[in-house]
């Protein structure tokens, strides 16, 4: 394993170990996501039937809101003992630190989505799994895009004031394309006929977004985290 | 930014703005919308000036992040503030036009929706600089850079998204008689933007000099 | 990469209108313990952060032996150990797991031996598998110190290490620092408690409002 990959693995493994001990962020994020789905459902279900396209929108809003929460909590942990500082003093590649945290967050969000996506499918009678591979692709590419920007922003806000409200203020406008692509791609998937090419187009945009923004994050992580 | 150019440029910009209403009055009426369409000259010109301001901020931020030059940061914050102000002009003139022309205030048109997203990003930049505590200049620079990189994605995704909505507006193509006026207004706003950027970067430079003077006075 | 002294040459650090360090010059040799005294807000933590390469000076230069700070990079950071005021430990993990994680982060070749040695020196071998959240302040301090020394750094920086320790714990800390000094480490610690460093430091410097008092 190269030094970079090894460092990423060490950091991700530590994050998973810490999370496995308490499962605090996992459970709280999961229940927050479920609450989100419920609250939005009350807004968008009329006479016992969901408004069309509600499922897609509610799913991605729940992912965005709970993702923001999870990011804040994970980095709050690193702020607590100032362990992020200890990692910045260590002789590691700073971008490897970014990737290590990103992978940990992705695994956490994947665990949340494993529960929330079937839940949304159930509650809104949305056939999200008819085209399972494409659905998983959209979820993966969208979550990666959201988390890639979110990990950088959450890390850089660790020592800033007002960090709790700053994260959503910064994150949501920048991830607008991800939300649009996720919602419209999922909605295209749910169309009874002919939505697949559109869904694939949205997936392609998401992958492109991921590549561009992960690259930008890798470039800017070190200048932003050091003075 | 050569400060000696500031006064001449301001005078030229002022002259252009003084003359612009006459040009706009003389321009031909657009076939379907009549008088209302004439707000377009300022609205679209502001849109282009917004793009300039955002680019200045994004590029200045990138340079600042990687070279730490204070001049780059001054450009970044000046560009961001200008983006917010000009963006507000776009976001106000757009609905005014839309309401008179098509009866709806907000049309979800791709350009104005993208403008709204960019406007939010630069507002976030300013909020971070103001409330983020010490050292937030670097963090805000990352936001500005990400914002600039986001422009094509925002435009594309909003554009594809809105084709699913009924079209309520059609931006007219420029008739020959309108082009002269249009580019004149664009020129006026670009010049105004340059003048404001010069003024704002100079203000920021004075602020930094003031900090240095405070420090020197302590000795 | 190694070095036998740390030098600050005319280092100034400003934050906007606040000058945290004002033309500080000092030189510290290997195998010595230097205490940095001064009231709160004097700039001691800023000085340590600069020595740890976490902050750049606004002007002036920091040298590690023949190497300038700017050329250091990861190789330089591998020779520096720091114990911050917040201890840099994960409370959800056990002592052994904390040490093991940092040993791996520092890519040390003999992880298990170092972990075992660190636990022994901290006197925590029987409590090695208990999570750190359940430790007393003194135990956490000892563990945090061993974590900072895990990779045998040439430069050890400690920010207010005596805070919140009882007399026995202070004695143990002093003993451990003497061991580090004997091994040739450059030890720099900050404190605002003069009594704590009596009979320990070879030299003390006082910072007042960012300036070294003569």
Give me the strand/helix succession of chain C. EEEHEEHEHHHEHEEE
Strand order of the largest sheet of chain C: 6-7-8-3-9-10
Strand content of chain A: under 5%
- One letter per element, helices H and strands E, the order of chain A comes to HHEEHHHHHHH
Tell me the greatest interface. Answer: A-B, 32 and 31 residues
Q: What overall form of chain C do the CA principal axes indicate? A: globular
Into which percent range does the helicity of residues of chain C fall? 25-40%
What do the pLDDT scores of chain A average to? 91
Radius of gyration of chain C: 17 Å
Largest sheet of chain A: 2 strands, antiparallel
* Rg from alpha-carbon coordinates of chain A: 18 Å
Number of strands of chain C: 10
DSSP helical segment count of chain A: 9
- Oligomer category: heterotrimer
**What ranges of chain C have pLDDT less than 50 throughout 5 or more consecutive residues?**
none
Structural class by helix and strand composition of chain A: mainly alpha
Concise summary:
Chain B is mostly helical and 219 residues long.
Main features:
heterotrimer, A: 227 residues, mainly alpha, C: alpha/beta, 6-stranded mixed sheet, 4-stranded antiparallel sheet, 28% strand
